[in-house]
Design a protein that fits this description.
- The complex is a heterodimer.
- Chain A has one domain.
- Chain A contains 4 helices and no strands.
- Chain A starts with 17 loop residues before the first helix and ends in a 6-residue tail after the last helix.
- The relative contact order of chain A is 0.20.
- Chain B has a domain of about 110 residues.
- Chain B has 21 helices and 17 strands.
- A 6-stranded antiparallel sheet of chain B has the order 2-1-4-5-6-7.
- In chain B, a hairpin with a 2-residue loop joins strand 4 and strand 5.
- The longest helix of chain B has about 100 residues.
- The radius of gyration of chain B is 73 Å and the shape is rod-shaped.
- The relative contact order of chain B is 0.14.
- Classes of the chains: A mainly alpha, B alpha+beta.
- At the A-B interface, helix 1, helix 2 and helix 4 of A face helix 10, helix 11, helix 14 and helix 15 of B.
């Protein structure tokens, strides 16, 4: 994960904050429809404060919950933990994918290529 | 020289006149009597004119225009005046009888008289009786001037009116007479001519000095050496230039063999430049890609979520479930207010009441639901819009980076290859050759400049050398002339020394003799206590000293000192004493001349005196006039004296002595008023008025008649 996560200003880092990596990983996993069960799941792993500066995250969280269930009721407060858990499972899966595919060693161009590949793969969500 | 006769024709006031002088023997005196302006001075002028032409005439009234008797023009527009002087002169070849005739032919045209003078001299050797030789014009003139040199003219044909002349400080004529007697004038002329010749040779000598030639030769040799040295240097330069040019050519050829390496170096530079440039571009592109990924990676990857979420949201919205149009809290408020949403009363059991109740139970959602639904809409909106554009942009940026990177990689490969080849090439040799070529070219440049300088120097030197060579040739010729000139100068110097010696010796003797005689005669004539000496005046190198008779008187201490302001009588005495002294010396040159001093033949000269007693005044027999007059018989040559009636009366006693005066004449003038009678020499003689009433000279004509 060192390639795309590090202090601001670092030459090769794509993401400055860890939550950005989590969000990106979750989106990668959801794109591929892969989620994992969380070991020792306690339902409160997400630090909400870390997502405050990102306007996308609540929408993405609710969106994957709605798409996953097909039921708008999952947007109700009582499903909040479920929604978070769902995000975490995808994030976990995504991080694993990124790690397995060597994202940590990618340069910007390789990352971009991979990113493009992910988007444009015929079997993908497209 | 002895005068025989004088014949005048139409000369001045003399219509026709002829005089035969007393025998030329020593001590014989001829007296010609004439009153003032009757013709005595004209008679003196006749002597001088016939002997020396116009230059001998000292009286302005004898101007050529009035020389011819004007009466002649009254009857004839062509007239002529002539003077014939017969005399004898001696030389080593014998005694010559000379008839000298000078004639002035004149023509009256209007008021002007045109004249043309001729001179003719007939010479007959009286000793041998050989035939007569006639000289004309220039030859005749030259002959007469040799008999009586000009300086002697003033002395021998003496005008009493010019008594100051002999004793004044202006002594040229007097000293000249002495020099003429001695022949020093000839010697002086010879010295002068020699000096002039010498000056020319000296000029030649000066202009063509050996020293000058030597300097020129040295100068030329120096220049030639300089030129040769320059030429040698130039040759060396050119030789070296040729060597260097060959060397430069060889080096260039050698360098050509390394052209490939030169290309490699060029390639290396090109690759390095390109790589560096691409790296800059890559850095910029990577930065842009990184920024783009950071901003857009999430939305790009969230494609499935956005697509499926949008479809579901649309379906739910169409079914009215998503999001609910009425919130649960609103419905609670309607129920509590018992009012329908359409405004009707919400009656329990009514249709409206049932619908609201149903909505409350099944479809109504809380604020959290709405908030969640809005967040989904926001996400979908952000994730869906411009997705394709983002992907394309990502693709573009990615490809740009890849292309640049690939190009860098490729160039790096090429660069590595080039560097490998350079690594294995003889770069050092190339650098060495290039440095060598640079050095050679530098040296060639310097040498070319040196050759140009040498050429310029030679161009400068060559004409100077040529000019000097010409000067040397000219000087060499002149040097030869110099040597000849020097010999001639030496010869002339010797000649001048000899002549100078003769002059000096003669002058010494002459001075001594004249001193003695002048003192003696002056004492005798002066008849009072007085003494005279001859002062010697230096005239410069090559010239005989001048002489000046000086009257002396005693001062209060009894010493003889020069008398300044002597009276005219005393001056006249001194002049006559001086004349007599000169004549005395001239007649006895053998006694005074030594060595080569005697140039002229020893000869006695006649003395013609015009009014010699005019200034003495009446002092009877004791006066100086009487002393001078009585001494005429003691003169060395014949004496002819012109005298007026007043002086005749003074000296009557002496002049009436027939043994003393052997011939007597008087000048008879005729004028319109008739003759004037005087008791002259014991006879009654008509003496005409001096100035005729008409005043015209033409009316006066004279003749000389023996008494």
């Amino acid at each position: 994960m060192d390639t795309f996560f590090g202090p601001a200003g670092a030459d090769k880092k794509i993401f400055t904050h860890y939550w950005e990596v989590q969000l990106f990983a979750a989106s990668v996993a959801f794109q591929r429809g892969l989620k994992e069960d969380l070991p020792d799941k306690n339902g409160t792993d997400i630090d909400y404060d870390t997502f405050k500066s990102c306007g996308y995250w609540p929408g993405f969280l609710n969106c994957i919950a709605l798409v996953e269930s097909g039921n708008p009721d999952h947007l109700l407060p009582e499903y909040e933990e479920h929604r978070i858990s769902l995000f975490e499972r995808y994030a976990e899966s995504g991080l694993r994918i990124l790690d397995s595919e060597g994202f940590g060693e990618f340069s910007e161009s390789m990352f971009a290529r991979k990113l493009t590949t992910i988007v444009c793969v015929p079997g993908g969500v497209m | 020289m002895k005068l025989i006769s004088l014949r005048l024709t139409n000369f001045r006031q003399f219509k026709s006149a002829y005089v035969e002088f007393a025998d030329g023997d020593s001590g014989k005196v001829t007296i010609i009597h004439g009153e003032n302006t009757q013709g005595k001075s004209a008679l003196l002028a006749a002597f001088r004119w016939v002997l020396h032409g116009y230059s001998g005439i000292i009286n302005s009234i004898t101007h050529p225009n009035v020389l011819v008797n004007r009466e002649e023009f009254e009857v004839n527009s062509d007239a002529s005046a002539s003077v014939e002087l017969m005399f004898t002169t001696s030389s080593s070849e014998g005694v010559f009888h000379v008839a000298a005739i000078r004639t002035l032919a004149a023509r009256l045209q209007g008021s002007h008289i045109h004249h043309d003078g001729i001179v003719k001299v007939s010479i007959t050797n009286r000793t041998t009786g050989e035939g007569t030789q006639t000289l004309k014009d220039a030859d005749a003139t030259a002959f007469l001037r040799s008999v009586i040199p000009f300086p002697l003219l003033d002395l021998l044909f003496y005008s009493g009116e010019g008594i100051d002349k002999l004793t004044s400080s202006v002594t040229a004529g007097i000293g000249g007479a002495v020099r003429a007697v001695l022949g020093f004038n000839v010697l002086e002329e010879a010295i002068q001519n020699l000096s002039q010749a010498k000056a020319k040779f000296e000029d030649t000598l000066h202009k063509s000095a050996d020293e000058q030639l030597k300097k020129k030769i040295d100068q030329n040799n120096k220049l030639i050496s300089e030129r040769d040295l320059n030429l040698e240097k130039k040759k060396d330069f050119e030789k070296r230039l040729l060597e260097l040019s060959t060397e430069a050519l060889n080096s260039s050829k050698e360098l050509e063999t390394y052209a490939e390496v030169k290309d490699l170096a060029s390639d290396q530079t090109r690759y390095l430049t390109s790589i560096e440039s691409d790296r800059s571009r890559l850095a910029a592109a990577s930065g842009e890609l990184k920024e783009f990924i950071k901003n857009n990676a999430f939305t790009i990857v969230s494609r499935r979520a956005s697509v499926e979420g949008s479809r579901l949201e649309l379906a739910l919205r169409q079914s009215g479930d998503f999001p609910s149009a009425v919130s649960k809290r609103f419905l609670d408020e309607l129920v509590q207010a018992n009012a329908c949403i359409c405004g009707r009363p919400l009656e329990p059991g009514s249709h409206e009441h049932a619908k609201v109740t149903s909505l409350r139970s099944s479809r109504a959602r809380g604020a959290e639901f709405h908030e969640a639904a809005e967040s989904i809409s926001f996400f979908l909106k952000e994730a869906s819009d411009k997705h394709a554009e983002r992907v394309a942009r990502l693709e573009y940026l990615k490809n740009e980076c890849l292309v640049i990177r690939a190009r860098i990689e490729s160039n790096l490969v090429e660069l590595a290859d080039v560097q490998d080849r350079i690594e294995n090439s003889p770069v050092d040799s190339i650098i060495e050759i290039q440095a060598k070529i640079a050095r050679v070219h530098d040296e060639i440049g310097g040498l070319k400049e040196s050759v140009l300088t040498a050429n310029r120097e030679m161009f400068r030197l060559e004409p100077v050398i040529q000019k000097l060579s010409k000067e040397i040739i000219a000087l060499s010729v002149k040097r030869d002339e110099t040597r000849i000139a020097q010999k001639r100068i030496d010869f002339i110097n010797d000649a001048i020394s000899e002549l100078q010696l003769v002059i000096d010796k003669g002058t010494d003797i002459m001075h001594q003799k004249l001193n003695e005689l002048v003192a003696e005669y002056f004492m005798k004539y002066n008849n009072v206590d007085g003494f005279a000496k001859i002062e010697r005046i230096n005239r410069g190198s090559g010239l005989a000293d001048d002489f000046r008779p000086v009257p002396l008187i005693r001062n209060s201490k009894g010493e003889w000192i020069e008398e300044t302001g002597a009276n005219r009588a005393k001056q006249q005495c001194l002049s006559l004493a001086y004349i007599r002294s000169v004549l005395s010396v001239a007649s006895r040159l053998d006694e005074v001349a030594t060595g080569g001093a005697r140039i002229l033949a020893s000869e006695s000269y006649p003395l013609v005196l015009d009014a010699p007693f005019g200034v003495f005044g009446g002092s009877g027999d004791a006066g100086p006039a009487a002393s001078v007059c009585s001494s005429f018989t003691e003169f060395e040559g014949q004496t002819i004296c012109f005298i007026n009636y007043a002086n005749y009366l003074l000296l009557k006693k002496t002049l009436d002595d027939d043994s003393y005066v052997t011939k007597r004449f008087y000048i008879q003038s005729f004028v319109a008023s008739g003759p004037v009678n005087h008791d002259l020499f014991g006879k009654n003689i008509d003496v005409f008025s001096l100035f005729p009433p008409g005043g015209a000279v033409a009316q006066l004509y004279s003749e000389i008649k023996p008494i």
